[in-house]
Amino acid sequence: MTREELNREKQSEILSEEKREKRKKTVIFCAKIIFILVAGVTIFYLLNTYIFTKKVIVKEERIIDERIPDNFSGTKIIQFSDLHYGSTVFMSDVKNLVKLINTRNPDLVIFTGDLIDKDYKISSKEREKLIKALSGIKASIGKYAVMGDEDGDEYTTIIKQANFSLLNNSYDLIYDDDNLPVIIIGVGSLLGKNYNIDEAYSYFKDANSNSNLYKIVIFHEPDLTDYILSGNEANLLLAGHSHNGNIILPFIGGVVKYEGANNYYSEKYNVGNSKLFISSGVGTNGVGVRFLCQPSINFFRLSNK
């Protein structure tokens, strides 16, 4: 074999070795990427399953409004929403939720709809346990609820047997050791097509009614806000449904939008002279994922100064 042939053979071996090393590095790099992706997905799954969708936090707000009667200044209100029982929420979670609510010693408790997930078939045994658990929520003045878009006859039965007053296009005057009440108004579901704002505000049709009462309006889908405020007054509006977007990204906000929560979906808004608060919910709906948007309950303290 000539020197040139030896050189060519040597160069060929070197090139082959370089190709093998390159392939080896490529395989190792791809393996690392796959490992990182699998680890990332696994970690996110575990966080979403055991923390992001499970750890319920309390969001506190002080509502200052000079229109609040003196006897209601200091009143504590808990709002919870969108339990979606059977999604990421089950009986142990409900019991923990009840304990969390009761630790705040609320005067009023308000549920703004969607109790049972639409894809979950609740058993009769679970139904009785759910009624018992929700009955354990304590409120010194009262417990109120409205219909969500996924709520039907079964919801009506459960919520009433749990001693909640269901305000389905109706109202209640709440007195607390005084002749001046506040009025709580419940409006039906926008998507359920059972809302009737005129009926809900029927108290004010009476010429002798007090139009200056402090008005708390509760409903499920936040996009009802503009319908309600078109021709009506409200001081404090409480809604649910949006889950605040489920996934919140920095500088972007909520990512997941639901019909009925396109215009309003974040935590809170000032709409004219009204304050609107939207619960992020306790359960999950549809996507079944949360990120930077933990399940929560809202805790309000009313104050007139």
Please describe what this structure looks like.
With 305 residues, this protein is an alpha/beta fold. It has two domains: 1-51; 57-303, Metallo-dependent phosphatases (Purple Acid Phosphatase, chain A, domain 2), CATH 3.60.21.10. Helices cover 30% and strands 20% of the residues. It has six helices and 14 strands. Strand 6 (170-174) and strand 7 form a beta hairpin. Helix 2 (91-102) packs parallel to helix 3 (124-135). The longest helix has 50 residues, at 3-52.
Count of all domains: 2
Give the CATH H-level superfamily of the largest domain. Answer: Metallo-dependent phosphatases
Integer average pLDDT: 88
Largest sheet: 6 strands, mixed
What is the fold-level CATH name, i.e. the topology of the largest domain? Purple Acid Phosphatase, chain A, domain 2
Task: Record the strand order, biggest sheet.
Answer: 1-14-2-3-4-5
- In which range does the helix fraction lie? 25-40%
CATH architecture group name of the largest domain: 4-Layer Sandwich
Strand content: 15-25%
Separate helix tally: 6
**CATH class category label of the largest domain:** Alpha Beta
Class from helix and strand fractions: alpha/beta
Run of helices and strands: HEEHEHEHEEEHEHEEEEEE
Rounded Rg: 27 Å
Report, as a whole number of angstroms, the end-to-end distance: 102 Å
Number of strands: 14
| Residue runs with pLDDT of under 50 for 5 or more positions | 42-46
Shape: elongated
